[in-house]
Design brief:
alpha+beta; four-stranded antiparallel beta sheet; three-stranded antiparallel beta sheet; 7 strands
């Protein structure tokens, strides 16, 4: 059959996260430097403790992000057997073609204080979902029910952190699924 397709984590988004964490470390260092300007000694100590914790946490984040940047993880694969979903919110990591009922692209609107924006997801409905829910733990049941309530599909795949075009991935998925039927 067709070759396997693997989608990696986006290096561009990792660079943004590294930059964001570096800015937070600089702010924390400035917080330590200028904490002497606070009027109460207790606040100086408290500010330095918080800044130290922030430097540690954001420093750890930078180290882990740099390691991910050097070796981006595979977050999504399309194989001859089905789909391997390693995105952050994957309910099922391995979905076989014969378990899939339908695959669609979903445009979901989100409201923020200042704007409305649309994000694309890949939605999958499964065959025998009642059987799957009956043997699943409470966390998976809740995730499936939330997906159905919010998106109208059993499984939602968010490729926002992927280094790919979601429309192209959807077209490949649809073609592979149709050829499997």
């Amino acid at each position: 059959m067709d070759e396997n397709i693997t989608i990696l984590q986006s290096k561009k988004k990792l660079l943004y996260l590294i930059t964001y964490n570096a800015i937070l470390i600089v702010i924390s260092i400035l917080m330590i430097i200028f904490s002497n300007l606070l009027p109460v000694k207790f606040l100086v100590i408290l500010a330095r403790i918080f800044a130290g914790v922030f430097i540690f946490v954001f420093g750890y984040n930078i180290i882990s992000l740099v390691l991910q940047l050097k070796n981006p993880k595979e977050i999504f694969s399309i194989t001859s057997d089905g789909i391997i979903d390693n995105t952050n919110f994957a309910i099922f990591n391995n979905i076989k073609w014969d378990e899939i009922k339908s695959i669609d692209i979903i445009n979901k609107e989100f409201n923020t204080k200042n704007e409305i924006y649309t994000k694309k997801f890949i939605g999958i409905d499964l065959n025998n979902i009642d059987d799957i829910i009956s043997i699943s733990d409470d966390f998976i049941k809740e995730r499936i029910n939330n997906n159905i309530k919010n998106f109208g599909k059993h499984i939602i795949i968010d490729l926002g952190n992927a280094d790919c075009d979601i429309d192209k991935v959807y077209n490949v998925l649809k073609d592979r699924f149709e050829s499997f039927k």
